[in-house]
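Last lecture ended with a question: if I hand you only a sequence, what can you say about the shape of the protein? Today we answer it with a concrete record. The protein is DUF3313 domain-containing protein. Below, first the input exactly as provided, then the predicted structure, then a couple of comments.
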Amino acid sequence: MRSNLHFFRRLADEPPRRLLPALAIGMALAATGCTSMPMKESGTLTSYSNLGPAKGKLGKKRRLYVDGRQLAQVKTVRIVPTSFTFIAASKIKSEADRSLVSNVLDRALCIALSDKYRMVPSDQPADLTIRSVVTDIVPTNKTVAGAATVVSVGGGFALPDNVPLVGIPRIPFGLGGLAVEAEAVDRVSTQRAAMMWGRGANFIQDKPRYSEVGDAYGQATKFASDFSRMLITGKEPKMLNISVPSRQRVQSWFGGKPKYPACETFGRAPGVLGAVAGKYGLPPQWTDKKPKPYVTR
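The predicted structure:
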């Protein structure tokens, strides 16, 4: 850990044109300082035979299948609220914490998929039905996360503004993680897309938050990004997403009204307040409130 801190202190003193090799080394360090999330078939998918081989990078692993030709004909989509396997649920005692993770996953999916599809409530028929299950979760150590927040927030302000993507690294202990299995089936329950996905937090890219589900909360949105991009494009998503978000996504991120009423089921994003809370390591429970029951009219 001492050597890693020394590396980043030196990095802060380097001129921007010399940062690229150092950033590459930093990303390599991130891969070694992360929680391992093995992928095991849990039996929640309709089929596993369609899935391709496992691929991974920087602590993220996934296996996937996508029928792009059939997805191109989809007009409407519904999301069945995410559930937990018994094993995953047993690792997080608080039902409110589990709901926080499942809800942010579903909300992120609903908002992202609104770019292409018309989203309908889960109790209405649709061309495509999405089911996601949290199959494993590693709780974040709140004590270590609290200490890491003091280091990362306090040290982050000391870095010069012209150093991109670099901050004081997080203490590489007690990091959490998340594993999810999800699929999209058509009206006759034929699997049209599926993904096994796992990612553990790493000490460079993931901000510490004082919550048992602080890391899982962040990983849930990353999974939603991968799965939604696969459904929208009809092909394997790239490991790095550099696309510009749509206007409706930006509006939803700021806590505005979603494009489709069905997404109100999962509440609205905490927006700027949530971003500030995340920077200072505050629990996501403080700003991401339980959604109100959706009422059809």
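Comments.
1. Residues 1-32, 155-167 have pLDDT under 50 and may be disordered.
2. The first helix runs from residue 2 to 13.
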